[in-house]
Amino acid sequence: MTQDWFLEKHTPYAGLTLAVRERLHEQQSEFQHIEVLETVEYGRLLLLDGFVMLTARDEFIYHEMIVHTPLLLHGAPKQVLVIGGGDGGSVREVLRHASVEQVTLVEIDPAVIETCRRFFPELAHSLDDPRAQVVHQDGFAYLDGHPDAYDAIIVDSIDPVGEGAKLFTTAFYQKITSALRAGGVAVFQTESPFYNGEVLAQVNRKLNPLFAHVAPFLAHIPTYPSGLWSFTFASNHIDPRQALPEQPPSFQKELKYFNVEVCQAAFALPGYIRETLGEP
Predict the structure, then answer these.
(1) Active site amino acids
(2) pTM over cut 0.90
(3) DSSP character for 30?
């Protein structure tokens, strides 16, 4: 049979190719082009403007690492903000924490949530939890009205292009500091350190004057560029390299990637990434 293929270029000369069984959904929302493909190897695939956002097979890695790393380091977050992440995966993981009283998802595009409710219910079902609040607003603007409001802020943003670029600016990071409570923590997705090391370095340079403790950490995500992804933790009160969790969370058996050993190891950076960051 004739096989269709999806191609995402990560550089002009390298990328990701996946065999596609069927195109399940396609629409142009007010903000972006949304597609859902059924792939042979990774199941359902969500694309925004042609770029891979998640697949059914490996989404758990991204969502577990971006959420449990900061929340366990905090210890007992009650109010959590997720900026972006309209698929619901980050909210799903936040809600595993018994201390959480409310998680607010700020997603600018209602069509992303509607698409994921239909095609990725295993993620989007979390948005129906009574502790979850969904706000359709630009995350950059939303922060202005919520000073000193959150114990943890998770920036589950798209790549730093178009509307997403302002979520990688000093002005945005200043808003994050104002929205955090005393003892609060923040985490940012900071791209592939192999292909986009300059993004990781720029984010860390902008965060360092604003937070006492800034630390990148890593996860292996097969369908993201290079297969290696970075996040950056920031806090004025918690140094993640000194306060790493020693005891597993009560729900660790429910997880597929995150555990306390992985969390501890994730902050150990290879030499080339240290060099990119200007560290010895």
Answers:
(1) 156
(2) yes
(3) S
